[in-house]
Design a protein that fits this description.
mainly alpha
Length: 447
């Protein structure tokens, strides 16, 4: 017979996976849009240039977009805490406050993204790549308000443990995106062949569908959450107190990878295409961890709301263990099937060979990426979003990116040198954040 503690851990694993699997599928669904986009533009005549242009456009869009989405990172914490305490009115007030923030942030973020396009010229990106990337981003940027509204609806639903609609929305929106890509990139059904720009327009249409799907899900689950929408200054302040450091954390992490994308673009189209492919595959495994991190934040927040501090601590560490175990699988995949993974995206032999070396580097940081991602979720459940921000700032921007630039350009290692710098940053962040979580929970494992 298993001991009482073993039964508790088994229950924690079951509860986490019940919540994490749908959320991970939802994260994969969101990420799958980018994967499908890269694969489908990669079938255009100039594969390296097309993949590179979409990648550069994304490099300017997503750091700001994901940082803006990060402002709502505290929403599921507040909602789950309120529901755990039985205060449904406060949970609904959190949704209204989140939507109010989205309305203010959207035009500011759009303006910043559009004003950032001259950076490509300043950094010396070739004219062909630059023109296609700018055309891509000028369409994609209008999907930003949709992303922010989606983030609010999604975090409200996962905060009340209603996660199936999130998964269904993510899967079905990918079908909309894939069909839109087929029509708009290549010019089927009488539509103009828009190339890379068609991919951006298809993504916008898929996100319109996504928001409407989740709006209906919230309406069906809790009419009052929609009927009684209103913001509270107090809740807005709480969301910003949690969200601003979380947004900075996500922006710093995503931003450093997209800065690496721009640097790879300076090296050349082949390096940029290889970088994009490996980053695309690595991002798929990251999305699994991100779903687990969201489930961890909700579980820890709910248990704190019920007063079960020991359960909250146990749930956090159980999740970190699951995250590390999952990353072992990605390590094996990257080391054993690098060429097969690369050929799924492109038939360009030059790109495939560079991908092989980058997959080997990516395999070296997968375990630490899982540690830092899930630890960030656990800390968010405890209301701590500042620690992750500080570690991301120091490790990525203070250490990883400068060393990657030095190795890539000064030492002549090319795109592999850039990835070596990222490898070092992820190791530091993974160790640092799990250490922070250890000290936060030290000596409090008893019931």
């Amino acid at each position: 017979m298993p001991s009482g503690r073993a039964l508790l851990i088994r229950n924690d694993v079951a509860n986490l996976l019940r919540l994490a699997i749908p959320l991970s599928l939802a994260e994969l669904g969101w990420m799958a849009m980018g994967v499908v986009d890269v694969i489908m533009v990669g079938k255009l005549p100039d594969s390296a240039n097309a993949i590179g242009a979409a990648s550069l456009g994304s490099a300017l869009f997503y750091p700001f977009a994901v940082a803006a989405v990060g402002l709502f990172a505290g929403l599921d914490t507040l909602v789950s805490y309120a529901y755990g305490a039985g205060d449904h009115v406060e949970a609904r007030r959190s949704l209204g406050s989140g939507l109010a923030i989205a309305g203010v942030v959207s035009p500011v973020a759009i303006a910043i993204i559009l004003c950032s396009t001259p950076l490509l010229s300043i950094l010396g990106v070739t004219t062909a790549l630059r023109d296609d990337a700018v055309g891509f981003i000028r369409i994609l940027v209008w999907s930003l308000p949709l992303l922010l509204v989606y983030a609010c609806f999604r975090r409200f639903l996962q905060g009340i443990h209603c996660v199936k609609p999130i998964t269904m929305a993510a899967i079905s929106s990918n079908l909309v995106n894939a069909l839109g890509n087929w029509v708009l990139i290549y010019g089927h059904w009488g539509a103009p062949a828009m190339g890379v720009r068609g991919s951006a327009l298809s993504t916008c249409l898929a996100r319109i569908y996504l928001v409407n799907f989740l709006f209906c899900a919230v309406w069906m689950r809790d009419h009052q959450a929609i009927r009684g929408l209103h913001a509270s200054r107090k809740v807005v302040r709480q969301l910003l107190r949690l969200g601003v450091p979380a947004a900075a954390t996500i922006g710093l992490e995503v931003g450093v990878f997209h800065t690496a994308t721009v640097l790879a673009g300076v090296i050349g189209p082949v390096s940029l295409a290889a970088h994009t492919i490996v980053l695309n595959v690595a991002a798929v495994t990251y999305m699994l961890q991100l779903g687990l991190a969201s489930a961890t934040a909700v579980s820890v927040g709910r248990l704190r709301g019920t007063g079960d501090r020991a359960g909250a601590i146990r749930a956090g560490w159980t999740a970190v263990g699951i995250g590390v175990a999952l990353e072992f699988l990605s390590v094996v995949l990257f080391l054993t099937l690098p060429r097969e993974l690369a050929r799924f995206y492109t038939s360009d032999v030059r790109v495939v060979e560079v991908c092989v070396s980058l997959f080997a580097i990516a395999a070296g940081f997968q375990i630490f990426d899982g540690m830092q991602t899930v630890a960030t979720g656990a800390l968010r459940g405890w209301g701590d979003t500042k620690s992750s921000m500080l570690w991301n700032l120091g490790a990525y921007w203070g250490v990883g990116l400068p060393i990657g630039w030095w190795l890539g350009f000064r030492r002549g290692w090319g795109v592999a040198g850039i990835w070596d710098g990222l490898w070092l940053a992820l190791i530091l962040t993974g160790i640092g954040l799990t250490t922070v979580l250890h000290f936060k929970t030290k000596g409090n494992t008893g019931r």
